[in-house]
Design goal:
By secondary structure, the chain is α/β, with parallel strands linked by helices. Helix content is 49%, strand content 10%. The longest helix is centred in the N-terminal third of the chain and has 46 residues. 38% of the residues are buried.
């Protein structure tokens, strides 16, 4: 077979060509394709800039409060336990890595990614069920001085909901990061802090969540650099969630 892939087909090949016009020279206006790609990139950049602005204006003070509470836990010997599914598992590991190995002169802080050990995850999923893969680890590792941070784009993951229940029962500081309207996470009574990226785009949600947890890290490290007497104790804060999130 010669020529670009899919040329011999009918509707399927036309769909393929519309997705990958650069494979079909002479059939597409390259300048128009490049201009459309540029406009798309500009529009997406504008979307995430606006979403970050909304989150910053709405949640800036709450992020500072959460960082202060987290700093008190770290100062008392606590650790950060981060978890999520799929792309959120990657974000959870990035969050743990940022605290544990920030680079430069920043202070490293103890952190674990609970979605990073395939042996543990597959054992729990196979022997018990995927819904307990994080809750069981929190039951094994969690201490009252620790911080549990769960990330989800939908806010509806059952294994996160169970993990928050277990973490709260054991006295951990519980922090949720979600998208859309917060999903079922917005209905929980056991979340100390909930940060929501209010968007229907998974891509924009995850981009905004990345900003949220990096700001949380920066504020926590800054809070830990203050004199001990200026930090609050590690008692549980009153629940804090954005206005407009579902209850």
């Amino acid at each position: 077979m010669t020529g670009p892939p899919g040329r011999a087909g009918g509707t399927g090949s036309r769909a393929h060509e519309s997705l990958y016009p650069f494979l079909y020279p002479g059939t597409t206006d390259l300048a128009a394709v490049l201009d459309a790609a540029r406009q798309s990139a500009i529009a997406k950049a504008a979307e995430i800039i606006e979403l970050r602005r909304v989150v910053g204006e709405r949640d800036g003070a709450r992020l500072m409060s959460c960082a202060s509470a987290a700093a008190a836990r770290f100062a008392a010997g606590g650790r950060l336990l981060a978890f999520g599914n799929g792309g959120s598992a990657t974000d959870a590991q990035q969050l743990a890595t940022t605290f544990l190995n920030p680079g430069g002169t920043a202070r490293p802080l103890p952190a674990l990614g609970l979605a990073s050990d395939p042996s543990v995850l597959t054992a729990l999923a196979n022997d018990v069920g995927v819904e307990v893969v994080f809750a069981r680890q929190i039951a094994a590792f969690g201490r009252p001085s620790d911080i549990a941070v769960g990330m989800s784009t939908s806010g509806n993951s059952d294994n996160l909901l169970r993990a928050f229940a277990e973490a709260s029962r054991r006295g951990l500081l519980t922090v949720g990061i979600a998208g859309y309207d917060g999903g079922k996470m917005a209905e929980l009574d056991n979340l100390d802090y909930l940060f929501v990226a209010p968007s229907s785009s998974v891509h924009r949600i995850q981009e905004a969540q990345t900003t949220i947890y990096h700001v949380l890290w920066e504020l926590t490290v800054a809070e830990l650099s203050r004199p001990d007497q200026s930090r609050p104790d590690q008692s549980r804060p009153e629940q804090s969630r954005p206005e407009g999130s579902r209850r």
